[in-house]
Amino acid sequence: MKKLLILQMVLLAFVFTQGYAEAEVEEVKVLTLEDAVRSAAENNVQVKTQALTLNTLEKSNTFSWNSVSPTANVKGSLAEDFDAGTTSLSVTGTLNVALSANLYTQIRAAKLSYERGQMTYEQTCRLIEKEVRTAFYHLLYEQENLALQKKSLDTKLTQYRNNQEKFRNGQISELDVMTSKVSYEQQKPTVEQAETTFTNDIAAFKQVIGIDQRIPVKLEGSLDEVLSITGISFQSLPERNVPAPDIQDAQKAVEIARNGILSQRFSAYAPSITASYQLRKANRSNVDNIATTNSLSVGVTIPLDGYLPWSSSAVNIAAKKNELEAAKLTLENTKTSTAVQTENYLRKINLAIAQAASLKANVELAETTYEMTKTAYNYGKTDFLNLLNANDAVLSANVSLKSQAYSLISTILELEYLLGIPFGTIGK
Questions:
Q1: DSSP H or E stretch at residue 243
Q2: Which residues are the signal sequence here (predicted)?
Q3: What is the CATH classification number for the domain harbouring 189?
Q4: Of 260, 264, 257, 263, nearest to 314 (Cα)?
Q5: Contacts for 116 with CB less than 8 Å, ≥ 6 apart
């Protein structure tokens, strides 16, 4: 009996603990757009990986002078001459220093690589933020679409029950009852599909922003805020003191190419200096004194093949010049491409705003038509098919409006990412 009592207590404790853990996990987390962005910045794997790459470039930049750091080594030897019966012991220390003319370009190259790495890291963070914002608005669209589909399902269920009552009272035919039932049943798979899609996308969104999959989330926000945006022109865009990120990257590529030419020229024409200091102590067992060798050597190497147009050094210099010209062409093309994309996005945004205004009016018309058709149907002035079509028109108009709002905000986010403008500033 005691063992049975103990076992029951253990089981009760386990059930209680398990229930408490589940209750703790199932606490709903309210998630705003800014919460999602902040969570992604802290937990996203791609951001963390890029941060490690930047850390490596930073260390390379900090110690870019290490090519002139002296190299030192110590060598010891022990020799035994069995015929002479002597033992020799020696210790040699060597210190070498090499100084090349392209030390400056090596330091400069490390600095430019680090600066470009900083730009890449910032763009990675902005790319993740853009994707998070786009995904959040898409989830809002799916959430509102699901709500609209459920509302339509409830309306059809209510209409089906009302038609059953009217049929029992002899007010409508059995065909209207069957039609309302079929319409209701056909709406169920649509709602289930919308729920499945929303659940799957929520799971993918949690992975991106680094939230435990077991934690249920509730999105806080609405696409109605997007629909309040008015027309946008190039002049109304926020001012920036620096070029667009793609242009900055192309400019940095030109700097790197210029530094590459200078480095290659130093290698081809400039002398390099080497210095070596050696200290050696040696002793033989049959000699009382310790022999000491103390020497310093300095050498200068002057390359001459760079002056020969067919040499590999001359060919490498010509190749670096071509790389610089290619980088300049890429820079000019990037400037043109950025300007063209900006104009394209502005046209798409203004077109989407105009279409959204038209869809708003369409929603109002559909809702008014439905209410009038519903009144007419209740008075027996129209058939059920017209009422069903009017209800479907309301659903379709609302879904189209929400879809247009998502398309509008997605295009705005693309423009903000292209120009390097802080997200959420265009249209305010």
A1: none
A2: 1-23
A3: 1.20.1600.10
A4: 264
A5: 249, 252, 253, 256
Neighbouring CB atoms inside 10 A of 322's CB total 12
Q: Which residue has the higher pLDDT, 19 or 219?
A: 219
Cβ(228)–Cβ(423) below 8 Å: no
Lowest mean pLDDT among 114-128, 194-208, 287-301, 407-421: 287-301
Q: What is the DSSP code (8-state) at residue 226?
A: G
Side chain identity at 9, as an amino acid letter?
A: M
Bridge partners (DSSP) of residue 74 are 93
Q: What is the pLDDT of residue 72?
A: 79
Q: Is residue 30 part of a domain?
A: no
Q: Which domain holds residue 283?
A: 36-419
Q: How far is CA 357 from the centre of its chain?
A: 32
Measured CA distances, 291 to 113, 198, 218, 284, 296 (Å):
50, 85, 84, 9, 17
- The answer to whether residue 9 is domain-embedded is no
Q: What is the pTM of this model?
A: 0.79
Contacts of 372 (CB under 8 A, 6+ apart): none
Best CA proximity match to 338, nearest among 239, 407, 238, 414? 414
3-state helix, strand, coil in the chain (%, to 5): 70, 15, 15
